Amino acid sequence: MSNFYFAANISNRYKDITEGASPIIDNWPLMGSPLPVLSIAAFYLLFVLQLGPRWMQHRKPFDLQWLLIAYNAAQVLSSLALCIQPLFLGGVGLLFSISCNDAPVVDTDLQLTIWKGTWWYLVLKLVELLDTVFFVLRKKQNQVSFLHVYHHTIMAVFTWGYLKYLPGIQGAFLGVLNTYVHVVMYSYYLIAALGPRYQRFLWWKRYLTTLQLAQFGIMLVYLLLIVSFQCSVPRSLSFFFIGNVAIFLVLFFLLTSFCCLVAAKRCHHIVNVQTGQYLQATNTVDPATNYYQFAWLSHDHRRNSLWFVERYEPNLRDDTFYMVNEESGEYLAVHPHNDRAYILQRNISQWMPVNSFLFRLNEVGKEGEIVNWYKNYSLYATSLGVGGSFVGSNPRCGLDSCRWRFEGYEC
């Protein structure tokens, strides 16, 4: 008998959810059946987790700079156009109201605008799957985290379900809020894609993490209010949405907390692939300045050839790190004037851009370039094997003298 009531309860919940479907929306592209969206999501997961990494395994990363510039610009403009639509139809009060606003029965201009806006929002969620595809094609598989893949997949599927079965004003606030956040995020990505010359305009990147956390927090409060006010949105769906927003919030908080903490110290010999020599910090203080040392290449295995990466604040696209010498505790840096590799005490950085200390590193054990965040220059081993310098777009960087291997040792 209990099984019968359980099955009946499930059936009633399903009926509550599906009875809101609109025949108008059913005739729109992608909306007649869940098969197209589910197929796209399935192929996305297969490519970014299996096919893509396997295909790129023995290939060089694609240079997608101009494609990323166009893509991010299109995302900014599309998101901006989408989130300002309610301003022209007097829907701001309804969208941002914390009281119940059931979907009107008649097809008012506002209702049709909400429906169409939600459909375009679905299209944007599907297009945003390319974010992960670009990571794979650029061989940044470390960026393909569980949170990233889960968020992109679930948002596409959830948006389809919302438009299919809950095409009303109630809940549209969540999409509008997310779209505003995406205007800011993709603006950041656009500036970052323009190259090192524009990095100085990204001083506000540290606030993106706060913006993301605030977004999830506001969404969670809004959904809890919908439940407490006994709105017409099925409670089962409300609790389902609450659970997923809570998952987003917790995972994002844990990820950013981990990224902002100093990673567990694991030292690495940084070995040049061409020469087999180690990046080493000399023990000689330069007499002219009395507070910085040079980074040299050496066959020496002493502790001053051991470095560890200290995680700084995460860029939402590329994790950046301080690279610290284990022996001296000083930081590898790019001198802003002569592009040499120096190590400096962190507390004298006021005369150098902070980004001079930041680098993008490949995964430990993989061969690749060490790229400075400030100038986008690659660490280069001189042909004489006597020093390390940083060079920009230079044919010699295509040689192994710009490629390094990280040999790990516990500190």
Summarize the structure in words:
- The chain is α+β, with helices and mostly antiparallel strands.
- The protein has helices at 2-18, 23-26, 35-56, 65-83, 92-95, 109-127, 130-137, 146-165, 172-193, 206-228, 235-260, and strands spanning 266-272, 278-281, 292-298, 306-311, 321-325, 331-334, 341-344, 358-360, 367-368, 371-372, 378-381, 388-391, 404-410.
- It has a 7-stranded antiparallel beta sheet, with no helix packed on it. A 4-stranded antiparallel beta sheet has the order 2-3-7-6, with no helix packed on it. It has a two-stranded antiparallel ribbon with strand order 11-12.
- A hairpin with a 6-residue loop joins strand 6 and strand 7 (341-344).
- Helix 4 packs antiparallel against helix 6 (109-127).
- The termini are far apart.
- Residues 4-8 have low confidence and may be disordered.
- Keywords: Fatty acid biosynthesis, Fatty acid metabolism, Lipid biosynthesis, Lipid metabolism, Membrane, Transferase, Transmembrane, Transmembrane helix.
- The chain crosses the membrane at residues 35-52, 73-98, 118-137, 144-163, 169-195, 207-227, 239-264.
- It is an enzyme of class 2 (transferase).
- Belongs to the ELO family.
In terms of DSSP E residues, the strand content is: 5-15%
- Radius of gyration, taken over Cα atoms and rounded to an integer in Å: 26 Å
| Largest sheet, strands/sense/barrel | 7 strands, antiparallel
Low-confidence stretches: 4-8
Distance between the termini: 63 Å
Q: So what's the overall shape?
A: elongated
Strand neighbour order, sheet with most strands: 9-13-1-4-5-8-10
- Total number of helical segments? 11
The mean pLDDT is: 75
H-E string: HHHHHHHHHHHEEEEEEEEEEEEE
Estimated structural class: alpha+beta
Number of strands: 13
Percent of residues in helices comes to 40-55%
